[in-house]
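Ops channel
N.P.: pipeline sanity check, posting one input/output pair.
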């Protein structure tokens, strides 16, 4: 339960979460929205303290707690992290928000105290939060109240006596607390959500169910109902509750505003206050009810009331207080000056005590036409009493007038209900609601719909034969609604629903038409107009004036902002219209009321209240100017808003950090040199803060502005009252004459015009000894009085030092001393000049902080000084062990100094003095300067130097730092002097600070921030670094190859790499919608593993054994964790075995290609390189032979349009037109080589012949080296050596049986491999001989001798000559080979597996040419390499004859070459 003061006991349980997004990071931090009111909790309950910081930027916000006997507060939390080891403390904070709530669980009484929310800006800003607790052993205060005795009764029910105290938070008593004042709260319009505060037990149990902040506006009504009209002040006074905290005891409540004087701390008095209320409810009488006062005539008034609602036995008597205020002018044109009237005839009161059964009383012998105030209360039989009733003002009549007579009769209205019944209105509710002019004002739309069938009858009866339309028109009813006033209504529909809001006007017009309402009052007039009230007069109405019961006065403000009309009921003439504003225009009128309602309004009077007199304004002006004092004292301009008794709490919270150094000056000026201590004690200011009331602002004892923030309301109230009532301090105290044993003092007083009624001055003096210190400056041995600003003190000891100070006194108290005069009372010691007073020395010098190389000192400012003095300070220090005895001084404008560059582990001696700058115009024309006596001497040590030590960084959130979010890093270091702490992330410095603990918020965290280090160095020893590895939580990122290839029958492996933390769920799918997942099976294995060095790295491997083309297609690797998901696509191709890659370089070397051209042969023929080396063109045929790689590519070349002149290159043979073919066709030919490298085989290998009989043999060979899997057929050619007839056979195996061989004969044999895309080259010819079942020779020979070459050349020349002659003869005779019949069947021996080729490449079928013979050498190699084609051969080659035709016709000189 949160309590601002005793009037704020209902505030408890405050927890208000604010979420204010801060976008302007460059703004200065602010704590102005923090909830700083005192918080009260039951012991053991959780406590919540709310701090709201705007624009925190990169600063650190800390919760601290002040502790007794400690130099500084204890740090509890830093940002969202707990620093203290006490696990009960925690911080509630939403990331990105501005609210930092300190949570304290399982609280104890030791947790009570002042908590500080601090931002480490420069300067720091703070908000202060007081926490207190109610103990379970709390007891109510003792009370003198006793329960009234009960009368004897014959009832069998036992009578229980009322105990002296009731149960409050565990106090044992047989009577439960049953103070439920909900009905009272409802009557005061307390909101439904706040009704939990309308039961005392709910408050005590902490079960109100509402946030008290939301009920702030309802608390005045709640407080009034809680007191229940009883005066609990005697009990509260006995309990020691200060006056400022007793307003709830009186049923009052002051809403807390931004004004500091509304901020009180009365938490310590919560329990006794509630205990007093709980006890008084059953023991105290209630107040009289329904108090009313009316003037009977010019000398008497009647007071009437109802009996209290409490037990009558509690009432002893009623006490009536009648106060005469002032006389009034009976002449209406003349006003009486209230101020002068009260001076001429002062107000007075008279008490009347009445019996407990009385309900009215007539006061007589009063003044004629005078203003009186009346109120009353109830006194109880047990010495208690009720609260007074409200105060009512009344005016006696002018001489000769008297009160109006009571009504003599009541006019009758037509019997509308009977009329309705006579007209068959059968619905009784319609008769009651519509057929009564008084009740029709409450009709609703539903009533109108129900009664619509009888609308004609109802409104006809209401009109009673009269037309009330003129009245309705004058009241501005809509035309449609005016039809209801005429009584002629035929049909009520939805359009008339709008007339519901005009039913009150319609009722008034009907009653007016019936002639039962009074006319307007007559002779309405105004008199005695004052600044805040005026007297209204009127006479009864001319019509039906005898029926008037009372009157209604209506008035309204008529200035620029037109106010709301206010109606005052139960008025009687003369009537006092009060609570008006001065210099304001109003409009007022009056109307008479009888039992049927209000009649016609009177004429309106517009008047303007009187202006306040100059004398009145002077009375409220404050005689002391605290703001000017602050200016004179040198308070910074930005801190001037604090120099006011009406300072705002928001300004104090905002400027508290910025103006911390000026707070001492501010307090001196607010105190104004007066002694406010008695007032502060009376108002409950705690002892630790009472020095503020004497302008002593000191940190060391807790009497500091910011630490006493919860009590500043009481303090400021005392300061404002005291500077009005108490005398100001004296100025310019000095000793003007000194002689042996005598001193003459002189000073000035600021109360020259007796504004403060200074009666005399008090001079205090004391003989000083060697042990006197600054802490005893207020002590004295003697005191004398003087009515003049001058005094002579005699009978002093000559040669002794004395100290003097002077204070002013009046009847309300004293001032404070403003200066001290310290001197040697000796004529010899006096130099003849005035000894001017100075401030007292600074005191309580102490070490505030220390390190190895510096010491920071603080002290309290002088206790005695004038408020307007400007103070500066000097700190003197030196080493105690050094050779020098001279002190080094440091000047400061504030009460703290940090002395740098000191020696570690060294003792220093120090003291400080105050330098006072004042302007004493009576004695000097310039600002003078005095230095105070030295303060006490302090001895301090610097710390020994210790190397820096740093702990591993603490990171929050501990469990999960999410990518893109923020993390808080806490570096804690030790060492003397204070180390410089640096935060490193991944080796990069982020922030440095000289601190023992550094809190850094890192925003937009990325996943690579894995290494966090804290580094500390203080210049002593080796710097230290401590690191921590973290894994940033992030959603998955999946990486996989866009395409994966596999060979049929091999294992298909897909690997997906996943980066995610926490560990993700990983799966592989075959569809984009992620519905067809892959699971492990016979052929499929699915495994996921983590990487060794990265906790966020994972690898998913999908392995499919014996891959098939059906396994190809699309795959999707999917991963997800709590932060997100990701998917990667993988395309899979499953194909046959890839073609082998052959090194063409070896072939080129075998063909004796020069070394400069060998780089063209790197794993294939590099055509681009070949074009850059034109000198390699003569060796181009060698390169093309190697490029063909043992395959016949002529089919591809034909399809690409390679002419016959260049076609031989397609099978690795030379051509005549090397340059032309190289430039025009080499790119297409090499393209075919590249295509064939994948689908054409090379020649078979390792041919062997074995004789199986005299006439048969077996041929064996091995598959080709290149593309062996593409071979679909082998073809074997053989013939006797030198024979023209060649035999062949095809097989799919790598062997063939040769039959019908002739024994003793030498054969030659070649083999080629082929498929549907083409064939390979022929193998080298193999020779073997058969003789007597033994193979005589089996060899593959290459002719290379000179003889063989010459023979080949001669043979080629002969063949060419013969072919040329044959072609010439044929041409002359026009005898050409007959063309092949396109319809005749063909067989492709060139490519026996590609049957469609013959239709494209047909050639004429020719007969056997007997004129062509194989060369005598019989060399197949020679035929392939040395013979040049004849023109006929070119033509036939262009027509591409089949292999079968070539073999059949045996063209000259070609041998096996024409079949390749």
């Amino acid at each position: 339960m949160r309590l601002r003061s005793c009037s704020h006991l209902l505030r408890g349980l405050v927890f208000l979460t604010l979420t204010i997004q801060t976008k302007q990071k460059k703004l200065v931090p602010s704590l102005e929205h923090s909830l700083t009111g005192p918080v009260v909790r039951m012991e053991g309950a959780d406590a919540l303290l709310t701090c709201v910081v705007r624009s925190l930027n990169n600063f650190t916000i800390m919760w601290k707690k002040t502790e007794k006997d400690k130099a500084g507060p204890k740090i509890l939390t830093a940002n969202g992290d707990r620093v203290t080891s006490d696990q009960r403390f925690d911080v509630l904070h939403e990331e990105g928000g501005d609210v930092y709530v300190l949570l304290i669980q399982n609280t104890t009484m030791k947790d009570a105290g002042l908590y500080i929310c601090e931002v480490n800006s420069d300067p720091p800003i703070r908000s202060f939060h007081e926490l207190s607790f109610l103990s379970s052993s709390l007891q109510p205060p003792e009370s003198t109240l006793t329960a009234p005795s009960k009368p004897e009764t014959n009832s069998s029910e036992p009578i229980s006596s009322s105990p002296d105290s009731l149960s409050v938070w565990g106090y044992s008593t047989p009577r439960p607390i049953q103070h439920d004042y909900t009905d009272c709260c409802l009557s005061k319009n307390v909101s439904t959500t706040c009704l939990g505060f309308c039961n005392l037990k709910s408050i005590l149990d902490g079960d109100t169910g509402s946030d008290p902040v939301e009920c702030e506006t309802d608390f005045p009504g709640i407080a009034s109902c809680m007191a229940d009209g009883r005066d609990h002040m005697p009990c509260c006074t006995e309990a020691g509750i200060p006056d400022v905290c007793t307003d709830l005891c009186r049923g009052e409540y002051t809403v807390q505003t931004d004004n500091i004087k509304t901020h009180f701390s009365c938490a310590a008095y919560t329990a006794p206050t509630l205990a007093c209320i709980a006890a008084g409810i059953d023991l105290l009488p209630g107040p009289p009810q329904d108090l009313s006062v009316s003037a009977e005539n010019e000398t008497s008034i009647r007071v009437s009331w109802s009996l209290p609602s409490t037990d009558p036995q509690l009432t002893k008597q009623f006490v009536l207080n009648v106060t005469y205020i002032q006389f009034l002018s009976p002449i209406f044109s003349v006003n009486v000056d209230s101020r002068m009237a009260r001076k001429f005839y002062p107000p007075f009161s008279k008490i009347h005590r009445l019996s407990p059964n009385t309900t009215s009383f007539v006061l007589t012998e009063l003044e004629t036409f005078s203003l009186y105030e009346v109120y009353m209360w109830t006194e109880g039989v047990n010495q208690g009493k009720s609260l007074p009733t409200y105060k009512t003002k009344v005016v006696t009549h002018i001489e000769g007038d008297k009160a109006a007579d009571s009504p003599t009769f009541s006019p009758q209205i037509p019997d509308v209900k009977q009329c309705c019944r006579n007209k068959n209105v059968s619905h009784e509710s319609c008769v009651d609601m519509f057929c009564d002019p008084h009740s029709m004002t409450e009709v609703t739309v539903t009533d109108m719909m129900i009664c619509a069938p009888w609308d004609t009858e109802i409104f006809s009866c209401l009109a009673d034969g009269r037309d009330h339309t003129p009245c309705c028109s004058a009241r501005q009813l809509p035309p449609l609604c005016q039809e209801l006033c005429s009584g002629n209504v035929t049909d009520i529909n939805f359009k008339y629903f709008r007339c519901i809001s005009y039913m009150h006007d319609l009722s008034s017009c009907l009653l007016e038409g019936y002639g039962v309402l009074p006319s307007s009052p007559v002779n309405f007039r105004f008199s005695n107009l004052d600044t805040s009230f005026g007297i209204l007069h009127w006479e009864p109405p001319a019509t039906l004036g005898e029926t008037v019961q009372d009157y209604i006065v209506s008035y309204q403000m008529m200035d620029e902002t037109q106010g709301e009309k206010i109606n005052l009921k139960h008025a009687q003439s003369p009537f006092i219209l009060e609570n008006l504003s001065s210099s304001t225009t109003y409009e007022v009128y009056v109307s008479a009321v009888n039992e049927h309602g209000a009649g016609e309004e009177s004429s309106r009077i517009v008047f303007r209240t009187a202006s306040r007199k100059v004398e009145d304004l002077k009375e409220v002006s404050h005689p002391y100017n605290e703001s000017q004092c602050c200016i004179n004292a040198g308070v910074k301009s930005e801190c001037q808003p604090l120099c006011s008794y009406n300072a705002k709490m928001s300004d104090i919270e905002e400027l508290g950090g910025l103006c911390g150094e000026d707070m001492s000056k501010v307090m001196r000026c607010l105190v104004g040199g007066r002694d406010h201590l008695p007032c502060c004690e009376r108002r409950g200011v705690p002892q630790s803060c009472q020095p503020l009331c004497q302008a002593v602002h000191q940190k060391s004892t807790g009497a500091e502005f910011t630490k006493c923030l919860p009590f500043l309301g009481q303090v400021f109230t005392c300061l404002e009252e005291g500077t009005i009532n108490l005398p100001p301090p004296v100025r310019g105290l000095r000793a003007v004459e000194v002689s042996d044993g005598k001193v003459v003092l002189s000073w000035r007083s600021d109360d020259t015009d007796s504004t403060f009624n200074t009666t005399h001055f008090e001079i205090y003096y004391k003989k000083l000894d060697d042990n006197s210190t600054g802490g005893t400056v207020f002590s004295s041995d003697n005191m004398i009085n003087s009515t003049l600003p001058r005094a002579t003190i005699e009978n002093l000891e000559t040669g002794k030092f004395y100290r003097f100070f002077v204070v002013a006194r009046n009847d309300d108290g004293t001032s404070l001393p403003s200066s001290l005069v310290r001197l040697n009372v000796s004529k010899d010691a006096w130099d003849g000049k005035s000894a001017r007073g100075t401030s007292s020395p600074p005191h309580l010098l102490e070490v505030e902080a220390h390190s190895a190389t510096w010491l920071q000192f603080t002290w309290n400012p002088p206790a005695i000084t004038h408020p307007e003095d400007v103070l500066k300070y000097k700190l003197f220090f030196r080493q105690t062990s050094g050779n020098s005895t001279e002190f080094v001084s440091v000047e400061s404008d504030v009460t703290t100094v940090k002395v740098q560059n000191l020696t570690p582990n060294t003792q220093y001696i120090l003291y400080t003095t105050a330098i006072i700058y004042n302007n004493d115009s009576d004695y000097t024309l310039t600002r003078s300067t005095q230095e105070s006596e030295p303060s006490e001497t302090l001895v301090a040590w610097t710390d020994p130097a210790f190397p820096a030590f740093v702990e591993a960084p603490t990171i929050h959130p501990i469990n999960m730092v999410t990518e893109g979010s923020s993390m808080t890093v806490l570096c804690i270091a030790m060492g003397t002097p204070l180390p410089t702490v640096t935060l490193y992330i991944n080796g990069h410095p982020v922030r440095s600070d000289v601190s023992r603990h550094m809190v850094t918020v890192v925003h937009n965290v990325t996943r690579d921030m894995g290494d966090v280090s804290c580094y500390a160095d203080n210049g002593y020893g080796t710097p230290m670094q401590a690191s921590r590895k973290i894994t940033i939580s992030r959603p998955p990122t999946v990486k996989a190859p866009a395409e994966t290839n596999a060979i049929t029958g091999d294992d298909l492996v897909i690997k997906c790499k996943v980066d995610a933390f926490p560990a993700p769920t990983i799966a592989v799918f075959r569809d984009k919608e992620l519905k067809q997942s892959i699971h492990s099976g016979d052929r499929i294995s699915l495994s996921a593993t983590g990487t060794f060095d990265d906790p966020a790295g994972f690898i998913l491997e999908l392995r499919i054994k014996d891959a098939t083309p059906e396994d190809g297609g699309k795959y999707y690797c999917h991963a997800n964790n709590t932060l997100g998901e990701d998917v990667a696509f993988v395309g899979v191709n499953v194909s046959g075995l890839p073609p082998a890659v052959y090194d063409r370089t070896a072939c080129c070397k075998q063909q004796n290609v020069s070394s400069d051209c060998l780089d063209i042969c790197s794993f294939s023929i590099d055509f681009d390189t070949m074009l850059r080396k034109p000198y390699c063109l003569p060796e181009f045929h060698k390169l093309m032979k190697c490029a063909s790689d043992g395959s016949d590519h002529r089919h591809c070349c034909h399809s690409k349009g390679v002419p016959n002149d260049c076609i031989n290159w397609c099978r690795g043979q030379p051509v005549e037109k090397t340059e032309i073919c190289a430039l025009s066709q080499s790119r297409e030919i090499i393209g075919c080589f590249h295509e064939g490298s994948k689908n054409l085989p090379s020649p078979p290998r390792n041919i062997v012949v074995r004789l199986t009989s005299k006439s048969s043999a077996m041929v064996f060979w091995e598959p080709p080296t290149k593309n062996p899997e593409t071979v679909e057929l082998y073809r074997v050619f053989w013939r006797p050596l030198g024979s023209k007839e060649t035999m062949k056979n095809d097989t799919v195996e790598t062997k063939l049986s040769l039959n019908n061989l002739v024994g003793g004969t030498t054969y030659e044999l070649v083999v080629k491999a082929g498929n549907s895309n083409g064939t390979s080259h022929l193998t080298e010819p193999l020779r073997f001989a058969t003789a007597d079942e033994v193979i005589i020779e089996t060899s593959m020979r290459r002719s290379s001798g000179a003889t063989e070459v010459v023979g080949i050349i001669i043979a080629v020349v002969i063949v060419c000559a013969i072919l040329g002659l044959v072609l010439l003869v044929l041409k002359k005779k026009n005898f050409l080979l007959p063309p092949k019949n396109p319809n005749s069947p063909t067989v492709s021996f060139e490519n026996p597996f590609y049957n469609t080729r013959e239709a494209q490449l047909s050639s004429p079928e020719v007969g056997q040419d007997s004129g062509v013979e194989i060369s005598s050498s019989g060399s197949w190699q020679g035929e392939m390499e040395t013979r040049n084609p004849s023109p006929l051969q070119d033509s036939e080659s262009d027509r591409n004859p089949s292999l079968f035709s070539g073999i059949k016709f045996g063209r000259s000189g070609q041998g096996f070459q024409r079949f390749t």
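N.P.: looks fine end to end. The mean pLDDT is 79.
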